[in-house]
Write a structure and sequence with these properties.
heterodimer, A: alpha/beta, Rossmann fold, six-stranded mixed β-sheet, 10 helices, globular, B: mainly alpha, MetI-like fold, two-stranded antiparallel sheet, 2 strands, 1% strand
Amino acid sequence: MVAEVVIKTVDLHCSFGSTAAMRDLNLDIYKNEILGIIGPANSGKTTFLRALNRLNYLSASYSQTGDIIFEGKNIKQITDRLLRKKIGIIFALPQVLPVSIFHNIAYGPKVHGLTKKNNAAAIVEKSLKKAYLWDEVKDRLDLPANRLSGGQQQRLCIARTLAVEPDVILYDEPCSGLDPISTAKVEDTMQELKKDYTQILVTNNTKQAARVTQRCGFFLMGELVEIEETETLFTKPKDKRTDDYITGRFG
Amino acid sequence: MLKRTSEFVIEACIKLSGLAVIIFVVAIFIFLLKDALSLFGVHSINDFLFGKKWLPISEPAKFGVIPLLLGSLYVTVGAIVICVPLGVCSAMFIAEVAPSHLKHVLKSLVEILAAIPSVVLGFIGIVWLGPFLRNTLNLSTGMCGLTGSLLLAFMALPTVISISEDALIGVPKAFKEAAFGLGATRWQTLWRIVLPSASSGIIAAVMLGIGRVIGETMVVMMVTGNSPVIPTSLLQPLRTLTATIAGEMGETVAGSEHYFALFAVGLILFIITFIINFIADICLRKARK
């Protein structure tokens, strides 16, 4: 597979206070792939994800060395605003805003001034359709968003991220609070989005990683142990620690 | 056995303390109501509620509450207009913007502001703020509604700041992260997400601030000029409900018409503060959901 590299990390080192959360990470992420990141708790998965759109800096003790190159440009030269528009994130628990379904989606485009050119209703419809939520909510767009079910809320968050026209979508254990049926719907949505977006999925659920991703990396204690085609990683892992983790012998 | 007795005694004490609060409030209300209603035996309730003149020692005496009610209203509205933007903005600064060491300093300063006795503020009003306003605004007297409003705004400020700040801090971190994750700036997040989510708590803060202002007596008695006429602007001397009771109670004969009239004024004040606290309570309960 010869593919265009969208994100490249160079010797990325992240720490909170004096604790290193991520050590010397060198990783390429290709266009239109779904990259899985698995690993036990405290392995730096979330830190890695949040480093990509600089959300880690919301915590005052955070510091980082090394570089992240996004679409050929060091992210230090991109404003937070533009970077987070281009690299959207879906959190573990659906973080719907305390407003209606419609305004949850319209919020992002409004913040970026996109609603002036296009009409907000069209953006909302388009985004909800892409997240396969439109048919379920089209008659009740004025309903407070927190009245939706957990799975619907999570897909609403995906739609909200899509509304600002990102290139990359990060998922931070997006299904950890969802039942199997809602999980399946979120995973289906991810598969459909593959043709237009690059996606990175951090998950605690190795089965999910095996189902959804093309390539998969195993993180342990802030270190990337190995990264392979998903099938290879799950059938013939090179490193013993990976083997132990995916077969459930530790973690 | 001993254990069971002490248990019983403690339980009874707690129950009694709880009931005492209810008994006190009801007793105060009945006490006010009894004496206030005595007025309406000799004086028409219409003349009291809608009378435009408060002349308690003229012959015949007039007990129209409108000038006092408007006096209170003017001073309160003035104070709130000054206090709310200032208070909510400082709360936003303390809760969302200030670095943590500055946050601690500001919070203790707000507490100190709350601890200043009102008579001290009144004193500052008489010797400094009143003359200052008279000179700068070219008034005939500095003892006017505006002086009272300014000082009361400062008195209500700690209440407004600390309750708004609680409301702002209570906004789930998730909302902020979601907004930041979409690329919203700090200001956009604060304005469009945090502030609306905290709105019920902020309304409660404002209502409690109003309650504080409308019940305040000492400052307004010292600086607003004590003139019970219908005010047409904040730059005139006026008199509030509270200052009337405090100022005249000492001069009345117990059981006289004037005496009962002051109780009726007190009853009105009680009803107003009750309604304000009730609204604040509803807002706070909504905010906690």
